[in-house]
Amino acid sequence: MARRPEVFVRALSMEEGRKLQRITRTAKDPVKLRRAIVVMMSGQGQSVPDITSLMQVSDDYARDVIHAFNERGFDALDPKWSGGRPPTISSQVREHICLIAKTVPAEWGITGHSTWSLKTLAEHLVERKVVASISREHLRRILRKGGVSWQTTTTWKSSNDPDFIAKMQRVLDLYDHPPEGGRVICADEFGPLNLMPRKGKRWRPEKSPARLRATYNRYHGVMHMIAALDLVTGKLYYRIRKRKRWREFLSFLKTLRARWPGETLHVIMDNYSPHKHPEVRAWAAEHDVELVLLPTYGSWLNWIESEFAALRYYALNGTDHRSHDEQNAAIAGYVRWRNARAIPKTRFAASSPILSWTSYPAKAA
């Protein structure tokens, strides 16, 4: 039998090659992505058998995609969905397929697989006689329509603090009912502040992103920011230092003490060891400063964390500072702008279910 003649995509321009590469990196539609990869491989001189071997598609499919691209250009990459024939798999079976997909192979006695691939799931469905036969693409569409997506497994850090609820309620009570003659302060460290290009977002012409240099070098060391959020005024106060030991933290507490003489300071902070140093505790006890420790793994209860997120977003993301003086000036400019618009902080997490917790949740929801 004579060998079928090889089929290759027409010669691609530099701009078409770049556009194909962009599509292979950003396309969310699997059909468009697969077609773009086939065209790119053909444009690189790879034969149809090489393409089918890598992409797990048929020879006819690869040839059809190449011919269509040669005739219609990039329009050929977009799937043209039509009504199609009526579904052969009922809605009840589709729900059953989605339920099975959300299990793990071990629950069915299948060893050597910690998760389903489309191929192994399709084989399992046929073996269990859920369906007579099903292609991987058909299975993919059923799962997508059923709201089942391929997701990365995440972790959830559970607190082992036996007094979690008591500590949390103490912090929330300080937020909502600051003591008479007292001032509630949220303190924490931000950093490390190293010099590096930072990704960010800005308004730009379409398909023309701002570009920063690519570098792995980290010169001039790192700096650390120690900051405090005053809930009475909503203003942010900070110092930038080379270290973040208990000495630097104690020095910062002394500046806060001097700023508000005659008031009891209730300083909410996490369990970072310098915060609990004996010298820090002793000084605080002598100078009318209450150190309120958050529960273990409860840093998200610190109101200053959202301020740090905004600082990172507006002052640092999308920048490439070449010196610490330049970076520190950017942070100072943001803090001045922010403090000029500050308002008192009240009603922390007013609609959050944490306000009604009577016990720590055993696992993530």
Question: Notable features of this structure?
Answer:
365 residues, alpha/beta, Nucleotidyltransferase, domain 5, 3 domains, 5-stranded mixed sheet, 40% helix, RNaseH-like_sf
Structural class, from helix and strand content? Answer: alpha/beta
Rg over CA atoms: 30 Å
Strand content: 5-15%
The third-level CATH topology of the largest domain is Nucleotidyltransferase, domain 5
Major sheet description: 5 strands, mixed
Mean pLDDT: 88
General form? elongated
Query: Which sequence of SSEs, written as H and E, runs from N to C?
Result: HHHHHHHHEEEHEHEHH
CATH structural architecture of the largest domain: 2-Layer Sandwich
By CATH's scheme, which homologous superfamily of the largest domain applies? Answer: Ribonuclease H-like superfamily/Ribonuclease H
Q: Count the DSSP helices.
A: 12
| Neighbour order of strands in the largest sheet | 3-2-1-4-5
